[in-house]
Design goal:
Helix content is 37%, strand content 17%. It is an alpha+beta fold and 294 residues long.
């Protein structure tokens, strides 16, 4: 089979030699293909350096007719699960290696044995997938794992949150550099609002920061779309909910705006403000007004 492949490459080289319209790049690519076959070298994933899955006789059945081609990796073995990235009441997030595309993703699956968590995971994935904005974590794929648990994969947006960055910021000057991150989150949420989607749980811990300036709003699991057919139960994180939420008022874009306002205030002041907002909002407003350098 390898000799047949070599003959096919040689025939293609001979065919393009007589046509000036073919680029030198095509010829070079064919020569590289020939060299790889002659040296019995494994192709590598573009931009990652990870080798193609081996297609030995023992696993040829598992990989299907595609053989060594990465797209032939079956769903049951597509994702190699790595370390845990996070855990919540409704699910767990792990790092995972996508064997078909050679990239690392975040894989979220529902809490075991919880029909409610599984239904919530499907809603979260569908809602997030409908938001196509660089400031919102992108959904890649969804499916059912071999153990029957639903999952979806999303972009690995970063391992730091705005909350982490605020903890590490030593003074006001460092915190002010994070204001642009808050503004980027505001733009992403404004896009979601334009699409009729409310986040309902905005806070520094749900703003992911990449190493190259990326800012992405994550964790849309409590999100809902407008108009509301039935008002959902009050949800969110204490301290980031407006006062009207305690009276049972339905969620609105203004609820998200309030949470972003609290996030901005915490970024400037450099400490959690939930308790103070509930107890003494006037003193906090005075303190913010005294920051002349902001």
């Amino acid at each position: 089979q390898r000799q047949l492949q070599r003959r096919q490459v040689l025939a293609e080289l001979e065919a393009i030699d007589g046509h000036a319209g073919h680029s030198d790049l095509l010829r070079q690519l064919l020569l590289v293909q020939l060299l790889l076959g002659a040296q019995d070298a494994q192709p590598v994933w573009p931009n990652s350096g990870a080798a193609f899955p081996n297609a030995s006789a023992s696993d040829s059945t598992d990989r299907g007719q595609a053989g060594a081609h990465p797209f032939g990796v079956p769903e049951s073995s597509r994702y190699g699960i790595g370390g845990q990235l996070g855990r919540g009441g409704m699910g767990v997030v792990h790092a995972a290696l996508d064997a078909r595309l050679g990239r690392t993703v975040a894989l979220k699956h529902a809490a075991a044995g919880s029909a409610q968590a599984q239904a919530q995971l499907a809603l979260e994935a569908a809602l997030t997938a409908g938001l196509d904005h660089p400031g919102i974590v992108q959904v890649h794929d969804a499916g059912i794992a071999a153990d029957g648990a639903p999952y979806y994969t999303k972009r690995m947006a970063g391992d730091r949150t705005l909350a982490d960055a605020l903890t590490e910021a030593s003074d006001l000057a460092h915190r002010l550099r994070l204001v642009r991150r808050v503004l980027a989150a505001c733009e992403a949420v404004a896009y979601a609002h334009d699409r009729g989607v409310i986040h309902r749980d905005l806070k520094p811990a749900n703003v992911l920061l990449g190493a190259f300036g990326e800012t992405q709003v994550a964790d849309w699991g409590l999100g809902c779309t407008l108009p509301l057919s039935l008002p959902p139960p009050t949800a969110g994180t204490a301290g980031y909910l407006p006062a009207e939420a305690s009276t049972g008022a339905p969620p609105s874009p203004q609820s998200d705006v309030y949470a972003l306002g609290v996030t901005l205030a915490e970024t400037i002041v450099g400490r959690p403000l939930a308790a103070q907002l509930a107890r003494d909002r006037a003193t906090l407003v005075t303190e913010l007004g005294a920051l002349k350098d902001v």
